[in-house]
Amino acid sequence: MTLLTVVFAPLFMALFAAAAPLSGQVLAKKDVFVPRIIEPNSSTVWKSGQTFNVTWDTSDAPAQITNRFGKVLIGFGTISTPVLLANGFDILDGSVAVKVPLVETNDNWNIVLMGDSGNFSPPFTIIGVDP
Ligand SMILES: *[C@@H]1O[C@H](CO)[C@@H](O)[C@H](O)[C@H]1NC(C)=O
Ligand SMILES: *[C@@H]1O[C@H](CO)[C@@H](O)[C@H](O)[C@H]1NC(C)=O
Questions:
Q1: Whole-prediction pTM value?
Q2: Buried b (16+ CB within 10 A) or exposed e, 28-61
Q3: What's domain 37-127's superfamily in CATH?
Q4: Who's near 81: CB < 8 A, 6+ residues apart?
Q5: Nearest alpha carbon, ligand 1 atom 4
Q6: How far is ligand 2, taken at its centre, from the CA of residue 98, in Å?
Q7: Is any ligand 1 atom within 6 A of the Cβ of residue 61?
């Protein structure tokens, strides 16, 4: 047994023990809600430093939601960044205001709305600073 095994094995067992009943409960009782993002969409133009609303469709939300706390992250192309624009709001609210960070001007930005599961917006434009 290596030192690493000695140190990490109990940690992994603890994680596994914690995760197992949780996933059983999720599968048994709850539905995954993947809301459709209404805005931003492909015709959206945001400006760095200004505040805009992210809006999404809550009309098909299941009665039981695994994780009601939402997060909005910013992405570029197919890369989602760990930069949070909003956090801890109720995913059933249908909108959240975000302040646009200072980024380079490009039409390939998107946002990721995370609740139960992540959903990407289409690419849209942010006017920031010239690349
Ligand atoms: C983007 O959203 C706005 C506001 O809801 C809407 O007026 C516009 O038609 C949408 N554009 C597209 C391409 O979906
Ligand atoms: C965002 O939504 C709030 C509440 O509906 C509204 O009062 C506000 O004007 C909206 N802001 C923008 C930038 O559309």
A1: 0.77
A2: eeeeebebebebbeeebebeeeeebebbbeeeeb
A3: chitin-binding protein cbp21 (2.70.50.50)
A4: 73, 74, 75
A5: 39
A6: 10
A7: no
What are the tens digits of pLDDT across the range 52-97?
A: 999 999 998 888 887 889 999 999 998 888 999 999 999 999 999 9
Q: Whose CA is nearest to atom 2 of ligand 2?
A: 53
Which atom in ligand 2 lies closest to the alpha carbon of residue 51? 13
Question: Residue 102 C-alpha to ligand 2 middle, in angstroms?
Answer: 21
Residue ranges of domains in the chain = 37-127
